[in-house]
């Protein structure tokens, strides 16, 4: 769990320093194609920068629940690898959509990678965010994925890089499908089990509002 908290602290520290340093800090250390060509390290620095307190908190809270679950199951090294590969994949996809000078910051793509793998390797672990009631990670992860598709199609919030989220999610799902935990707690390839988890979770997600409406 130590790694997850280190990532959380880096996000908080990056935001705090950015708030102190001002806009120039974001222009120099945020991710864009222009910055990538001149300063390749923005691939890393941009991850730990956030544009607002709301942006920071929403990312950090999701990172805590999914990060702790994934780290506990896969260990620090694999969790860190998934997080950074997801962030890099998100940046790569964003280059297809955004202008070379447009700045992007945030850990969202890396967190979506943890969401993708977390919902498959620890589907029944519980999250208390964004609702007070506990929600299984499989259900929460699929809800995030569906909402991201909706956001991408409707562009409901132009400040959110939905395409980058897809990059992270694909990385996480790829790891999740390759490695699953069986009933004895042994890690093994499990694309069939992964598809089963997604299918059952999707069915539950549909049934919940239907049952709610029937009870009204």
Task: Summarize the entry for a quick read.
The protein is mainly alpha-helical and 216 residues long.
What does this structure look like?
The protein has 216 residues and is mainly α. It has one domain (2-215): Rhomboid-like (Rhomboid-like fold), CATH 1.20.1540.10. Helix content is 70%, strand content 4%. It has helices at 2-21, 23-29, 33-38, 42-45, 53-74, 76-94, 108-121, 137-154, 162-178, 191-215, and strands at residues 126-127, 135-136, 180-181, 187-188. A two-stranded antiparallel ribbon has the order 1-2. Strands 3-4 form a two-stranded antiparallel ribbon.
What class do helices, strands and sheet pairing give? mainly alpha
State the major sheet: 2 strands, antiparallel
CATH C-level category:
Mainly Alpha
CA distance, first residue to last residue = 42 Å
Quick one: how many beta strands? 4
| CATH A-level architecture | Up-down Bundle
CATH topology: Rhomboid-like fold
Topology pattern, helix = H, strand = E: HHHHHHHEEHHEEH
Helix content: over 70%
Across the major sheet, the strand order is 1-2
- Give the overall shape: globular
Low-confidence stretches: none
Overall domain count: 1
Q: How many DSSP H or I helices? A: 10
* CATH superfamily heading: Rhomboid-like
Mean pLDDT: 90
Percentage beta strand? under 5%
Radius of gyration: 17 Å
């Amino acid at each position: 769990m130590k790694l997850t908290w280190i990532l959380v602290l880096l996000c908080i520290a990056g935001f705090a320093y950015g708030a102190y340093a001002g806009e120039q800090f974001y222009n120099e250390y945020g991710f864009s194609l222009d910055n990538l060509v001149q300063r390749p390290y923005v691939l890393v620095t941009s991850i730990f920068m956030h544009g607002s307190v709301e942006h920071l908190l929403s990312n950090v809270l999701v990172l805590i629940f999914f990060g702790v679950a994934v780290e506990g199951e896969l260990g620090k090294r694999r969790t860190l690898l998934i997080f950074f590969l997801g962030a890099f994949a998100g940046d790569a996809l964003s280059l297809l959509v955004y202008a070379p000078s447009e700045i992007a910051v945030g850990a969202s793509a890396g967190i979506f990678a943890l969401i993708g793998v977390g919902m498959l390797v620890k589907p029944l672990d519980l999250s208390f965010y964004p609702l007070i009631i506990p929600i299984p990670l499989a259900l929460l992860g699929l809800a995030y994925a569906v909402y991201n598709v909706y956001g991408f199609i409707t562009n409901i919030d132009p400040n959110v890089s939905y395409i980058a989220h897809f990059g992270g999610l694909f990385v996480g799902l790829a790891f999740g499908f390759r490695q699953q935990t069986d009933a004895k707690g042994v890690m093994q390839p499990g694309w069939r089990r992964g598809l089963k988890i997604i299918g059952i979770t999707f069915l539950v997600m549909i049934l919940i509002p239907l049952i709610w409406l029937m009870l009204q």
